[in-house]
Automatic annotation (TrEMBL):
Domain of life of the source: Bacteria
Originating species: Vibrio quintilis
Protein name stated in the entry: HNH nuclease domain-containing protein
Gene3D superfamilies: 1.10.30.50
């Protein structure tokens, strides 16, 4: 529930440069050279670049044109030739979230949406051509199983983190003791923020992959159409700066909390809370998140939550007690602690003069 950049700032000095290097590395991994010592020999047959070339030749074939029709094949070819312009494919793989809509706009000058997907209600399914793109050029399923994918998220400290969408379920990486497969297992999904069924050309874009729990990605999000203009993207905006958890005011008079709501800050445009049903989910998890204990502790010690007590032994003891409870004192660690955002916001209800949190 913070930007992934903020999560990384605990371990990386220059986060933007670090992420740029990760995206560049991903491009290189997806397009290995046959002989790194001699780039002129070309790329591996399974690289994105070579798969694009092969698909272009397939679409050019007269038999293919006859099968799907001249008009459709011409649109497909125009789209593929757009992808083959110098550095275009690389720019899509390494694109920042702000650039996704630019590529969408450019691509729709070459091909129609119904060439890529079919829409039913709020979900999308790939056309035959969309599936072809996902099985050749933008083969996410193959990438997901690679050692380079595991290593990428180990570098990004997702070997022990919490889902950036819900801040409730863990995402982690463990060693693979099975002889088959890679050295590690990712115990989380890589959500395609822009769903690959609708945007197959973003299926291997680094910033379109959000490490997330299966509950958020599979149970609630599915193929819903998320965009940075309508939903908070964890590489683009900070949930913590956009929403505040609020309990029923009775907790301020020592009543056990029974409900919670997420209040959107003024000017924030977002449908993430609604589409992931976060309020309903959190209402059922107040006890699991140990909120009753936290509110009782804060109520009991409310007299210490004044500036004049800061630096006293009593106030220091309270901070130590809350730290031992697991309260995230620094907001940059929210993604490392289950329910860290909720617990901080509850604390702010009592600590209105900000004597505890940073």
């Amino acid at each position: 529930m913070i930007k992934i950049e903020k999560h990384l700032s605990n371990n990386v000095t220059d986060v933007n440069s670090f992420l740029d290097s990760i995206a560049e590395e991903m491009w290189d991994d997806l397009n290995p050279l046959i002989n790194p010592a001699d780039p002129s020999i070309g790329h591996h047959p399974n690289s994105m670049i070579e798969n694009l070339s092969s698909l272009i030749e397939e679409v050019k074939n007269n038999k293919y044109k006859k099968k799907i029709g001249k008009e459709i094949s011409e649109r497909q070819l125009s789209f593929l030739q757009y992808l083959s312009t110098p550095n275009k494919l690389k720019s899509i793989v390494t694109a920042k979230p702000d650039d996704f809509h630019v590529f969408e706009k450019e691509i729709l000058l070459h091909i129609r949406p119904d060439d890529l997907f079919k829409k039913r209600g709020t979900t999308h399914s790939s056309t035959d051509f969309g599936k072809r793109l996902l099985s050749t050029i933008f083969n996410y399923e193959r990438y997901r199983k690679t050692e380079s994918c595991y290593n990428r998220y180990i570098k990004m400290k997702f070997d022990s983190a919490i889902c950036p969408y819900c801040n409730a379920n863990s995402v982690t990486i463990v060693e693979n003791t099975n002889d088959k497969g890679g050295e590690f297992r990712l115990l989380f999904d890589l959500d395609h923020f822009y769903p690959k069924s609708k945007y197959p050309y973003l299926a291997l874009s680094f910033y379109n992959h959000i490490p997330s729990c299966k509950t958020c990605n599979t149970t609630y999000k599915g193929s819903k159409d998320f965009k940075i203009s309508t939903h908070i993207h964890p590489f683009h905006r900070c949930f913590d700066s956009s929403y505040t958890f609020e309990l029923d005011n009775g907790v301020l008079s020592d009543k056990t909390p029974t409900s919670v709501k997420l209040t959107k800050n003024i000017g924030v445009i977002d449908n993430l809370v609604k589409d992931l049903e976060l309020e309903v989910r959190y209402k059922q998890q107040l006890s699991i998140a140990r909120i009753p204990y936290l509110t009782r502790t804060l109520y009991k010690n409310r007299h210490l939550l004044k500036p004049e007590f800061v630096g006293t032994s009593s106030h220091s003891n309270l901070v130590e007690l809350l730290d031992a409870y697991g309260l995230v004192l620094d907001d940059s660690s929210i993604m490392s602690t289950q329910y860290g955002k909720l617990q901080r916001d509850v604390t702010k209800m009592f600590d209105v003069q900000k004597t505890i949190l940073r």
